[in-house]
Every structure is written in structure tokens, then in C-alpha cells.
Design brief:
The protein is α+β, with helices and mostly antiparallel strands. The chain has two domains: 78 residues, OB fold (Dihydrolipoamide Acetyltransferase, E2P), CATH 2.40.50.140; 138 residues. Helices cover 40% and strands 21% of the residues. It has seven helices and five strands. A five-stranded mixed β-barrel has the order 1-2-3-5-4. Helix 3 runs parallel beside helix 6. It starts with a strand and ends with a helix.
């Protein structure tokens, strides 16, 4: 059967000579894989750019819950990214967020609240003009609420993962800020603090998700943002 759904492209792999298998987080069905035929040709009706990470989509899809890979009937971009693909700082952060979503999102059926949060976060990030170097830290903490693992406080987070700075007042204040702030709020922190807070948050996710592995984008973040 055919269904309408919004989607967020996360990644794709090449399949055969001209096709791909795309991983897309959908509003209607959670994480899904779709085969897209003949998309890697000059004459392709569907452009491969639609499957670049964090592209926001409107789709009509075939869905059979017994199949691991389904097909797309219609697809179009619902919001054109204006800055993320062209700003190296934003691109680096987007790669990290894509890795996080790929590792933690699952096929869990319709979840409008979670989908809206991710989509609105992407649009906010795309429109952000300053203070963007901390965006991934705020996203990690806000995302944890929708995953049901948001910590009550910085101290509880740090104590849970056995972090050495669980009783460091300044460090806890910094973590608490990201735990409770919105994307339009900003705190200036050092590059070293940003890197340490990021690793503490990643370790917190690993504590709750056995599937969370190494992030290839961490090194890129360090080079571009200093942490």
C-alpha cells in the first residue's frame, strides 16, 4: 500500500551499477530503508541530492512491514537547506548529528513529536547565524528527552558515567546549561571544555545504548571547532 510521510534523509549506500539503498527516518514508520533505482545516472528523474544527510523530505512510499527494504513512489524536498551544506562548521556538526541519529533511531512506528523535534532542530540550525559551535551539545541533551533518558542534572549525568568532574562546580554549571537551554541561548566555553562535555554526553549515551559506537565525525569536529 501507498502512504504519505515526511522524512529526513540520513545516509545511503551504492547498490548495483546505478541504484542506492537510502536510510530515511520517517514520521510514519520510524527508521526505514528504501531502494532507489537508477538514481546515479545523468538522466535520473530523482536526484541523488535528495538523499544527502539531513535533507527534509515529503514522500509517498510503499510500506510492507514484513520487508526490510521498501520503495519510494514519489519524493521531493520539503525545505531547501540554505547554509548547512556550505558552511564547514555546520557541515561538521551535521555529520555528527547524522551519526547520532543513525546509531540511535529505530523502526518504532509513528512518532510525530520526535520527528517534529528533529526537523525543527535542523531548520533552526540552518538559519543560525552565530553561536552555532555549541549546537551539537544542546541537540544531544534535548534529543535525550525524546529518547526517555534525559538526566535530572549535570551531577547525576556525570556520576552515572563515573566522570571525574562530577563535583567540579564550573563544569557542572556548563553541563547544566546545555541540559536546560534552547538553541537560541548561548554560553561561551573554552574549546577544551566543549570537547570534554561532548565526550561526557557521548559516554552517557553509550551507558544507555549498547549500539552507540565510535563517531568518525569527532576528529572533524575537533579540527574545525576545537572540540
Amino acid at each position: 500500500m501507498l502512504y504519505k510521510s515526511r522524512g529526513i534523509a540520513l545516509s545511503y549506500i551504492k547498490y548495483r551499477e546505478s541504484s542506492i539503498i537510502a536510510r530515511i527516518f520517517t514520521e510514519a514508520f520510524g527508521m526505514q530503508s528504501y531502494i532507489v533505482n537508477s538514481v546515479r545516472t545523468k538522466a535520473a528523474k530523482t536526484k541523488i541530492a535528495l538523499f544527502q544527510p539531513l535533507t527534509l523530505l515529503d514522500m509517498v512510499v510503499y510500506h510492507n512491514k514484513k520487508k526490510e527494504i521498501n520503495r519510494i513512489s514519489e519524493i521531493k524536498c520539503s525545505y531547501t537547506l540554505q547554509t548547512i551544506p556550505y558552511d564547514i562548521r555546520k557541515t561538521s556538526i551535521a555529520l555528527f548529528i547524522t551519526e547520532l541519529l543513525n546509531q540511535t533511531l529505530r523502526e518504532e512506528g509513528e512518532n510525530e513529536q520526535l520527528f517534529n523535534f528533529i526537523q525543527e532542530s535542523i531548520i533552526s540550525f540552518d538559519m543560525m547565524k552565530e553561536g552555532l559551535e555549541n549546537f551539537h551539545l544542546q541537540f544531544l541533551m534535548q534529543f535525550s528527552r525524546y529518547q526517555g533518558i534525559k538526566p535530572e542534572s549535570a551531577m547525576s549525568l556525570l556520576k552515572e558515567i563515573g566522570h571525574a568532574k562530577a563535583y567540579d562546580k564550573l563544569f557542572c554549571e556548563q553541563v547544566d546549561f546545555f541540559l536546560h537551554s534552547n538553541f537560541d541561548q548561548y554560553m561561551k566555553i573554552s574549546k577544551s571544555a566543549r570537547g570534554e562535555i561532548l565526550m561526557a554526553m557521548i559516554n552517557y549515551y553509550r551507558y544507555h545504548y549498547d549500539v552507540v559506537k565510535e563517531f568518525k565525525s569527532i576528529q572533524v569536529l575537533k579540527e574545525v571547532l576545537g572540540g
